[in-house]
Amino acid sequence: MKHRFIFSFTLGLVIFAGCSLVSNQSPGENLNPEITANEILDHIKYLSDDKREGRFPGSNGSQEAIEYIVNHFKKDGLEPAGPNGFLQPFEFIVGIDYGEVNQLEIAGTTYEKGIDYIPLEFSSSSTVESDIVFSGYGFSIDDSVQWNDYANSDVEGKWVLVFIDGPDSDSPHSDFAKHTPLRKKAMLARDNKAAGILFVNQAGDNDTLIPLKHSPNSTAVGISVLHISRSIADGLVGGRLEILQKELDEKLAPNSFPITQRVNAEVSLKKEIVEVPNVIGMIRGSDSVLKDEYIVIGAHFDHLGYGGGGSGSLAPDSAVVHNGADDNASGIAGILELAEKLSFNKKLLKRSIILMAYNAEEEGLLGSKYYVNNPTIDLSSVIAMINMDMIGRMSDNKVTIGGTGTSPGFETLLNEANEKKKIQLKMSPEGYGPSDHASFYINDVPVLFFFTGTHENYHKPSDDWEHINATGEKQIVDLVYDLTIKLSSLDEKPAFTEAGPKEPNQTRRSFKVTFGVIPSYGSQEEGMEIDGAKKEGPAGKAGMEKGDVIIEIGGKEIKNIYDYMYRLGELKPGDEVEVKIKRGEKVLSLKVTL
Ligand SMILES: [Zn+2]
C-alpha cells in the first residue's frame, strides 16, 4: 500500500532522477537503429521478467517498465509529448476499502463487518436506520414469468430483506437468470424507494459473504447494500428463513411482509485511486505542412500483475506473476524498435509520429480512452492509429490485421508495404476490437490493429518470453515501419470509413432494442455518459451527442451503465420513451423511438 497514494508525486522524482542511475541501458549504447529480433527479445525479457510483477498499474514493476520506455524514448531522441514530459497521468481506481465508520446494529446487538456482514462494492455510503420488509427474491418481473415482490408492499424508506439468486438457485438457463444480478435487485429496490437492501444466501449454500472488491466500471447504486449472514437474517424472520424460501420456491409467487425490527447500519466505503501515466513521445515530421498531421503508433504496457479473481486472469486461482511477454511486452518491444529506427530515419517522415504506451488497458482500455478524451493534439489531425497488441506469437508466417475497412486505401497500402516481406496478411475490416485502437475508432480515426492471435498461455502466468517468436515479430514490426513511412508521405490523408459497430458485440447482441449510443466505460459520472451516438440511430436522431449523460429512461432513474443495460433489457422495438440527459449543467428531455 505504501506507494499507492504518494505514487504520482514520487514517480516524477524517480524517473528524472533515475535516468542516469537506474537505466538498464546507457544512452547511445546500442547504435544499430535496425529492427532486430535480438533487441525485440531483450525488450520482452526485461518487461516480462518476474521483477516487473506483471506490470499492474501503479505497481513497482509498472514503474520500472515506465522508466524503461522513457529512457529509450530519450535515448532515441524523441520529443516528450505528454502534459508532464513523456507522461500523461490519469486517475485509476485500484480498489475499494472500508471508510471511516461501518457498523450494523440490530436490537442492541452490534455485528462485525467482514464476518457477520459485508457491504457490496456498489453500495452507497450512507446511514439507514429503519424497519424491514421481507421481499422474497426482490423480483419485479413482467414477462413470460409474472413475479413482483414489491406489489402491494410498501418499502418506502425501509430495508428490504432479499434472497440472492432465484427459485432454481443460480442456474444460468432459468427464466429468472436475467433477473438475479445483485445490482439489478438493488436497482429495483431503489426504484421502489427502499432505503437499503439486505442480501442473504439461500439455504444449502455455504454461507460465504461476497468479498469487498472493486470491479471495473463500478459506481454506487444509490442505496445501502449489505450481504448479511444467514443467522442474522434467520433472527430477523423469527427462525423461519428456510421455510420462507421453501414456500417461495414451491409456490413460485411472492410472499412479502413487513418486519417490525429496527436495523441501523452505517456504510462508508472509499475507492482507492492512484494516478498512473500513459507514456508519449513524438518524432516531428519534416514537411512544413504535413508535420502538423500525425500517425499514432500505440501499444499497452500494463498487464494483470499477480492475477486473481476479477483480474481477467484465465488462471484466477493462481496468485503469481502474470508475465505478459506476448500481452503486451511484445507490442512495447515493437514501439521501442520503431522509435529507434523512425527517429534515426526521421528525414524520411513528412508527417509527425506519436508513439504511445498505454496504461490500464486490461482494466477497460482506460489509458487510451483517457488519451482520446484528453488528447495532447487535435484528434482530427490524427490521420491513422496503428495498434500492436500481442504480436509475439506469429505462426505459419501469418499476422491478423483488424480495421482494414476503416479507410478505403488501407488494404492496398498494406499489400504494397508487404510486397517484399511476403507475410500472410489476414485482414479483417472491423474497426472495433478488444484493444486500444477501439478508443480511436469510435472517434472516427482510421485504425489498424496488428495481432498474431490468442494462444494457450493467454492471460496466464505462463505467457513467458520463452514462447515468443522474435523473428516473426521482427517481420511484423518491419511491416509497420514501412507502412508508417508510406502513411507519413501520402499526398492525401486516408479518409475514414465506418467499418462495423462502435461498441462491443456482446452489448449489441443481448438486447432486443438499441439506442445506438456508445457507453462510456469507466466513466465515474452519475448516470450513463456516452462516448458517441450513431447519427442515424434512435438516440442520434433524437439529438443525443458525445459527452451527454443519460439520467432517466421512461421515468426511471439511470445512475450507471448497469441501470442502463437493465432498463434496455425491458424495452421493446417501437417503444417511444422519454429520455432525460444532462448536457453540461443543463437537463434536457428527448423523445426516443427504439
Ligand atoms: Zn493486451
Quick recap of the structure?
This protein is an alpha/beta fold. Helix content is 26%, strand content 25%. Mean pLDDT is 90; it is low at 1-29.
The small molecules bound here are: zinc ion
Shape: elongated
Secondary-structure content class? alpha/beta
Terminal CA distance: 47 Å
Oligomer: single chain
CATH class of the largest domain: Alpha Beta
Total of DSSP H or I helical runs spanning 4+ residues: 14
Radius of gyration, CA atoms, in whole angstroms: 27 Å
In the CATH hierarchy, the architecture of the largest domain is 3-Layer(aba) Sandwich
The biggest beta sheet is recorded as: 9 strands, mixed
Roughly what fraction of the amino acids lie in strands?
15-25%
Count the beta strands. Answer: 25
Rounded mean pLDDT is 90
CATH superfamily of the largest domain: Zn peptidases
How many domains make up the coordinates? 3
Please explain how this structure is put together:
The protein is of the alpha/beta class. It has 3 domains: 37-92 and 275-489, Aminopeptidase, CATH 3.40.630; 101-267, Glucose Oxidase, domain 1 (3-Layer(bba) Sandwich), CATH 3.50.30.30; 511-593, Pdz3 Domain (Roll). Helix content is 26%, strand content 25%. The chain has 14 helices and 25 strands. The strands form 4 sheets. Strands 1, 2, 13, 14, 15, 16, 17, 18 and 19 form a 9-stranded mixed sheet that branches. Strands 4-3-12-6-9-10-11-5 form an 8-stranded mixed sheet. Strand 7 (140-142) and strand 8 form a beta hairpin. Helix 7 (325-344) crosses helix 11. The longest helix is centred in the first third of the chain and has 21 residues, at 2-22. The two termini are 47 Å apart. 49% of the residues are buried. Residues 1-29 have low confidence and may be disordered. Bound molecules: zinc ion. The site of zinc ion has 7 residues, from helix 7.
